[in-house]
Every structure is written in C-alpha cells, then in structure tokens.
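User: I'm writing a tutorial on reading structure tokens. Could you give me a worked example: one chain, its sequence, then its tokens, then a sentence or two explaining what the tokens reveal?
Assistant: Sure. Here is the example chain.
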Amino acid sequence: MAVNDVTTWIPEEYSSEVVQRVTQRSVIEAMARSWPMANNLRHVPRSAGMDVAGVAAGGTYAEDSNTNDEVLLTARKMGQALRLNEEDLADSNLVDVINTKKMDWATSFAKFFDQAALGCTAAENGTTVLFTSVYKSLRTTQSSLGYTADDNYVVSASGSAVTYSDLSDVLSRVETGDYWDEGSALVIAHPSFKAKLRNIRAPQYSGDTGGTPIFVQGQGGDSGTPDTLFGHQIFYTLGAKTHATNTSNPTGNPLLIVCNREFLYKGVRSGPESAIAGADSGPAFLTDQALIKIRARRAFAVAHPKAFAVLEDA
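And here are its predicted structure tokens:
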C-alpha cells in the first residue's frame, strides 16, 4: 500500500547552540605592561641610563652624556560593524545572535591585535599598519638606542627544522644584555612551534642523540603548570606570524619571540565595547535593519628593542 507522505509538514529543528571557532585569547592583552590612556597619546619617559668611571683623589668627575627620550603610545581603533534584519533578530528565538557575534569579534580581535603587535612586517602608517611590531622593530636600525637591524633576529634555514642551536641563539641575544630579567622573561610563540619543540633535546656531550628536553609541556588548565622553554613560560597565539598588513588571519612565517615582558607596552584607551543602532530610528528607519558595531582602542610599543629577540621559522 502507498504511504501517505507528510514529510513536508514536519518542521525543521534548529539548535540554540551555534557552532563557533574556539575563542582565542590575546597574549598582548594578557601579558603586556598596561598603560591607561585618557586620550589618544601617552608619553612614557625612557632613561638612557648613567655611566660610571673611576675618579682619582681630587680628580674631576666625568659628566654623563647619555640622552634620555620617551616611548610614545598612540591609540588606534580596531572594530567591525554588522547589519541585521530586524525580522531575523525577532524570529531567532533560540539563538542569541548578538552575543554570539560579540564572541566571534573577540576571537578575531585577539589574533588581530597580537599580529599587529608582534608580526607585521611593514612600517606603521596608522591605518593598515597600526603599530610598529616587535618583528619590524628588531629588523630596523635604531641608532639613538644603540641597536642595529637584525642584531636580535634569528632565522631558521629555509626548509629545515628549528634546531636546538636556533633556540639557544635567539635566547642568547637578550639574556646577556642590560634589559634582561629572569623573573620577567616571557616566550611568545605560534602554536606550530609545539610540534617542533617536542622533538628537540639539549645534547649532553658531542654526538649525543639523547639529552634533556628543552621544552616541558605543562598540565594545562587555569590551575595547571604552564609550558616552558629553557625554564621560561610560553604563551601561544595564532597572531605570531608575519604578514605585510594587520590581519586576524596572517599567512606568513611562524614566529617565536623571547622578551622581558616589562618592555612590552600596551596602551588602553577604551573597549572592547559595542553599540547598537536599532531599526526604529536614524538611517535604519526605512530599512528595518539594525546595526551593531564593536570596537576597541589600543596602543602598542616596543619599549626598547634590546629587551626582545625573535626567531622566524622560514
């Protein structure tokens, strides 16, 4: 007997849970030294230090000639707008559209801010390149600070794996300088370095193929132990990659950065914050479309290039 087909009468079912990307956390937001900003500029004085020399009895003291200057933090805006039909908002009874999109934005912001601060390869222009990144700073001569381009830059051989020598070299570029502090040491790396680091051991003697692991994987979780490299805590971010402009999806080479976190400067002007223009007034009145914008104003600066070293996995 023929079956009476009523499948078209059966309503489709939708879940209230939306499939989203895993929420990312910004290393710069979490670990950089934070400076509150009352407007778009903040000047932080930077001391050039002071020399010392022997003085003979009754002799004349040499006068210090080091030139002091400042670190300038300039707040830049990062944001995005979203347009939604009022009907869709009213009819999406199970799905919290607005808060879902806020979380989506926060994930992209974390990667965008980190990439802008860490891996952008171009010069700062205030629009497509918001800040002078760690990578750009270390690849640029800064004569007034006694830094020559690439002094603290290491690149792995193209097509070769990252080696023990690469990692030891990048750390050595900072740990013997005036701006290193073991208690404030921080390693920032792209997650792709996890697989590379697991297979590297410190040789005990010439020709040794065993040795002690230099990478210690933590137990995870908020109360667990962190990953460490040469005893220094590692934080991972998908933003630790090179790219010519600021983006939440960088396509260049992975980076590993060693630094004194006290010289990783972040300025906080406002946000993250959101604003909603409903469909009942303003320019959206004739379209019945609500507008949502989410934004944050942040600044970033390398307080001194000698407090940083970068390894590029080419």
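What the tokens reveal: Residues 12-22 have pLDDT under 50 and may be disordered. Residues 21-46+70-312 form a domain with the phage-related protein like fold fold (CATH 3.90.1690).
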